[in-house]
Specification:
6-stranded parallel beta sheet, GMP Synthetase, Chain A, domain 3, 447 residues, single chain, Helicase, Ruva Protein, domain 3, globular, alpha/beta, 19 helices, 4 domains, Rossmann fold
Length: 447
């Protein structure tokens, strides 16, 4: 039977992606054969479920074909040297991990940000595999992962999924989840309250897994960069797991010390691209099913075609369609969907920085010369910052190109984007301005 299993693996290696084969098939081992039942050893419950769901039928059919008989599979979870039988013929419904568990320090993990809830496609398959590998493998050579994508692509989901997975399997692991801004604020507070040693002790010796989001906000924060570099050195030396996320690669983040830049880039850097049509449709179907919404296929296909910006836009469109149908008491059809998303569809492929600058000048009643001037008057600084934020959101131009278009360095562009994003989170006047300008751009009205 061992020979048959090796032949099965050779066939599987030609039929599934190489990274998926290495992650899911290679760790499987033969546990023996008893009355035409082949035992396959799995390292844990999560692993078993993923293999059964994604490759179970393929493995079973190949074993039967090569053995020439009705061989059944018996999946066995092996904890050290003590296997625990889990039969595929009558699988036990296992409870989900405790999703309300809180990391030892930092922000709460979202209950739905788990690996099971993450939709995998070509655009994020490598990032998903890398994140899962880091979460489930105890002796892997990979200890650091840098998740890179624009906003709304799922990097926060994967980062938190790692935290959930680790805490569900090894609850004693000390998982810290926070943003770079949280880390900075805590460090500043520790200096003000003369508790720097406690701060260092916690991160250098009291942390097993560090999930650090939005590391681009460290730009220009010299003291924080020094302290974080020391923290990372300590964690790296102890082979602790570190997961970063950012909208910018380490090489793109300005005003970053070379010491910290090298530490951010020393692990695996995985990019997450926008989802293609097939993946968008898959996301919509899953989200509708989880919420109990009966959405016609043609409506889902329409939304998947029109809402191509990011995952958040997709879900927002689906929520809007369901909510409008519920409030009006009408059926869900393509006409209803068109009315909901007409102001959501981004025209980013036709929008240029010049068009954004023209809109900004008209809205704030300033001249192009004022917008590009060196003036630091707030009446000009704020429109300039919003213009750079919109340029990053609606165009594919780099930070360098955006900064140059506004007569600024790319570091200034990054700072401007951060200021506007913070203003949006806080609500108020800034959020109102952005919403109005985005509606104008979404509707193609830049005049």
């Amino acid at each position: 039977m061992e020979l048959i299993w090796q032949k099965v693996k050779a066939v599987l290696a030609t039929r599934i992606p190489s990274h998926a084969f290495r992650m899911w098939i290679e760790p499987l081992t033969i546990g023996g054969v008893d009355s035409q039942v082949m035992k396959l050893n799995c390292p844990n419950l999560f692993f078993k479920k993923r293999v059964m769901d994604n490759f179970g039928e393929l493995i079973r059919s190949e074993i039967r074909r090569l053995s020439g008989g009705p061989v059944e599979l018996d999946w066995v979870i092996v904890h050290g040297n003590h296997p625990t039988k889990k039969s595929v013929a009558a699988p036990e419904q296992m409870p989900l991990p405790n999703m309300t568990i809180q990391p030892h320090y930092g922000r709460l993990l979202r209950q739905d940000f788990t690996f099971d809830q993450f939709v995998v496609g070509k655009s994020n398959e490598f990032a998903y595999s890398a994140a899962l590998s880091l979460a489930v493998r105890k002796n892997s050579q990979q200890h650091s992962l840098f998740l890179l994508s624009k906003t709304g692509m799922g990097k926060s989901h994967l980062s938190q999924a790692i935290g959930h997975q680790i805490m569900s399997e090894t609850p004693k692991e000390r998982v810290y989840y926070m943003t770079a801004e949280d880390f900075t604020n805590e460090m500043v507070t520790s200096y003000k309250t003369n508790s720097v040693n406690d701060f260092k002790e916690k991160y250098h010796k009291g942390c097993d897994v560090l999930l650090l989001e939005d590391v681009h906000y460290l730009s220009g924060k010299g003291r924080t960069q020094i302290e974080l570099a020391h923290t990372l050195d300590s964690l790296f030396n102890e082979n602790k797991k570190i997961i970063f996320s950012s909208c910018f690669s380490p090489s793109e983040i300005p005003k970053l010390s070379e010491n910290l830049r090298s530490r951010l880039a020393c692990g695996l850097i995985s990019n997450i691209d926008p989802p293609d049509y097939r993946m968008r449709l898959k996301i919509l179907k899953k989200y509708a099913r989880e919420n109990g919404w009966a959405i016609p296929q043609q409506v889902l296909e329409y939304l998947a075609t029109e809402l191509a910006q990011d995952v958040r836009q997709l879900k927002s469109g689906l929520v809007g369609v369901s909510a409008k149908a519920s409030l009006l008491g009408c059926s869900i059809d393509t006409e209803l969907a068109e009315g909901v998303i007409k102001n959501m569809i981004s025209q980013s492929e036709t929008i240029t920085i010049g068009m954004i600058q023209k809109l900004i000048c008209k809205y704030y009643n300033i001249t192009p010369k004022d917008l590009l001037s060196r003036s630091r008057k707030m009446a000009l600084v704020r429109p300039r910052q919003i213009g750079m934020y919109l340029s990053r959101r609606y165009t594919d131009q780099s930070l360098q190109a955006i900064g140059k278009s506004f007569n600024r360095y790319h570091a200034t562009a990054l700072h401007a984007i951060g200021v506007v994003e913070k203003g949006i989170r806080q609500g108020g006047v800034m959020q109102g301005h952005i919403e109005y300008l985005c509606r104008k751009l979404d509707n193609g009205d830049c005049s």
